[in-house]
Amino acid sequence: MRNVSLEQTKLKLTQVIMWPFCLLSSMSILALGFSKGAETLYFNLSYLWIIACLLLFERRFTYRVDWTRTDGQTGANIYHTLLNKGLVQVAVVLGISTGMITTQEEAFLSDWPLALQVLLGLITSELGLYWAHRCSHEYPYLWRFHSVHHSVKRLWLVNTGRFHFIDSIISVLASLPFLLLCGISTDAIVWVSAITAYIGILTHCNADMHCGFLNKVFNTPQLHRWHHSINSRIGNSNYGENLMLWDQIFGTYYYKEDSAVDVIGIQEKMPSTFTKQLLVPFIWNRYQDSGEDADTG
Ligand SMILES: [Zn+2]
Ligand SMILES: [Zn+2]
Question: If you measure from the C-alpha of residue 228 to the centroid of ligand 1, how many angstroms do you get, rounded to a whole number?
């Protein structure tokens, strides 16, 4: 009896610790990279680290067993991720490194403590991300692109980068100007981008994390699962990418402690292959009205 309760206590503690552990340990690796002047290399190491942790946690502390079964979308998820990160984000990095996108003249807050700059960067860029995301749910034409992300029927870390590249471009255009113009240093921008990457992969993981009061402040797996509900009355909520601040202010925060999301996905049809998923937003009505039954399930 005592052993059982000890095991339960250990499990509960692990469930509470997993989310902050992944975030803080990844941030520590990046901080080490900054101290060595090798932040790009160490960011990549930290990202590999968080992937390794989540693979382990998804296996050891699975949230939903039915989400561990293959849905035939792993290849499409990886292709979208490579196209998304590979083209859109590399374009941004190239823009900053070649001086086409510059922060130097605008970095009038660079003498502020770094943590404050990062906080300001998170809050301001989040405003753009929030409205871009909310518009992608509320405007049917934008939903065509964003529905590619929502069309999966299970959540796990490989879904993280599954975005139509037009959807990614919209997010970058909506948030990057805020980030560049809010006056923070390039280092702070790197921190904001890294934290966004860490929180993004955490929100999609299939590990049973219990985030408690953190659910009020940050976007967590517990909140993001509601956002993926097939019921749009529930899913049109929790738009924040990192923070819940703007959801709390604009009334779109949703969390029910004693229940869990049931079916996730979209009401519309989505083709199963990567190339068709790229094409389908442009021929949306024709595809929806067609007899073709190429559901992602
Ligand atoms: Zn969404
Ligand atoms: Zn998502």
Answer: 7
| Gap from CA of 11 to ligand 2 centroid (Å) | 26
Start-to-end Cα distance in the chain: 43
Measure 224 CA to ligand 2 centroid, in angstroms. Answer: 6
Q: How far is the CA of 149 from the centre of ligand 2 (A)?
A: 6
d(CA 124, CA 126): 5
**Identity at 134, one-letter amino acid code:** R
Phi and psi at residue 86, in whole multiples of 5°?
A: -65, -40
Number of the ligand closest to the Cα of 132: 1
Centroid of ligand 1 to alpha carbon of 13 (angstroms): 30
Nearest ligand to the CA of 261 is 2
CB neighbour list of residue 180: distance below 8 Å, 6 or more residues apart: 101, 102, 103, 106, 189
Q: What distance in Å separates the CA atoms of residue 267 and residue 297, rounded to the nearest whole number?
A: 12
For 53, the token pair is: 């942790």
Q: What ranges do the domains of the chain cover?
A: 2-289
> CB of 170 within 8 A of CB of 142?
yes
pLDDT in tens, 223-235: 999 999 999 999 9
The region of weakest confidence among 80-89, 177-186, 193-202, 233-242 is: 80-89
